[in-house]
User: Which sequence fits this backbone?
C-alpha cells in the first residue's frame, strides 16, 4: 500500500468520523425540536458518504476489486433521507403545533396534518364508471 | 496510519451512538425519539462499513444495506403510527 493511498483513505475516514460526531452532537445540543431535525443530515450525507468513499478507495486501490455496493447504499440513503425528515416534521407538527398557530400555506390547500387531501381525479377503468 | 484513522472513526461514531441514546432517553417529544433512532441507524450503517474495512472483507455491505432498509421502514412505520394511529390503513 503506497503512502498516497493510505493518506487519502485516512483523510476520508477522519472527515467522516468528524462529521458523524458533529451530526450526533447537534442532535444533542440544539435547543428546539425542529432545529434538531437539521443536524443528522450531516451524519447522513458527509459521515456515511465519507465512510463509503473510503471503503470504495480501499477495495479499489488495496484489494484491487471494484464494488458498487457502496453506491447502492449511498443512493438508498439519499433517496430515503428527505422522506424520513418530512415524516418526522409532520409528526412534530401534529403533536405540538395547533392549526391556528401555523402560517398560511399560500396555496389552495392547508397544512397536510390538519386539512383533508385535495380531491383527486381518479381515472377509473371503463367497467367501473357506470357503477 | 490507516488503522489509527479507522479507530478514530470508530470512536467518533460510537460516541455519536451514545449521544443518540441520551436523546432517546431524555427527548421531550416522540418526534425527537424517532429522529434519534433514525440517526442511530445511520451511525450503525457507518460502523458496519468501517468494520468491513477493518476486517478487509466485502461481506458487511449486505448487512449495511439491510440495516438501511429496515431502518427506513421502521422510521416510517413509527411516524405513521404517531400520525394516524395505525400503520397500514
Assistant:
Amino acid at each position: 500500500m503506497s503512502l498516497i493511498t493510505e493518506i487519502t483513505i485516512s483523510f476520508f475516514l477522519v472527515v467522516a468520523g468528524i462529521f458523524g460526531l458533529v451530526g450526533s452532537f447537534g442532535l444533542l445540543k440544539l435547543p428546539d425540536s425542529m432545529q434538531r431535525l437539521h443536524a443528522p443530515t450531516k451524519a447522513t450525507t458527509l459521515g456515511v458518504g465519507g465512510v463509503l468513499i473510503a471503503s470504495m478507495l480501499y477495495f479499489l486501490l488495496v484489494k484491487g476489486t471494484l464494488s458498487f455496493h457502496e453506491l447502492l447504499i449511498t443512493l438508498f440513503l439519499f433517496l430515503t433521507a428527505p422522506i424520513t425528515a418530512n415524516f418526522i416534521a409532520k409528526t412534530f407538527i401534529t403533536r405540538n403545533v395547533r392549526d391556528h398557530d401555523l402560517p398560511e400555506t399560500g396555496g389552495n390547500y392547508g397544512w397536510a396534518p390538519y386539512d383533508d387531501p385535495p380531491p383527486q381525479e381518479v381515472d377509473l377503468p371503463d367497467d367501473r364508471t357506470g357503477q | 496510519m490507516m488503522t489509527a484513522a479507522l479507530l478514530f472513526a470508530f470512536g467518533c461514531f460510537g460516541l455519536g451512538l451514545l449521544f443518540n441514546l441520551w436523546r432517546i432517553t431524555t427527548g421531550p417529544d416522540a418526534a425527537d425519539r424517532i429522529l434519534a433512532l433514525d440517526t442511530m441507524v445511520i451511525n450503525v450503517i457507518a460502523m458496519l462499513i468501517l468494520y468491513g474495512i477493518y476486517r478487509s472483507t466485502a461481506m458487511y455491505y449486505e448487512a449495511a444495506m439491510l440495516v438501511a432498509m429496515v431502518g427506513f421502514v421502521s422510521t416510517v412505520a413509527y411516524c405513521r403510527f404517531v400520525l394516524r394511529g395505525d400503520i397500514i390503513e
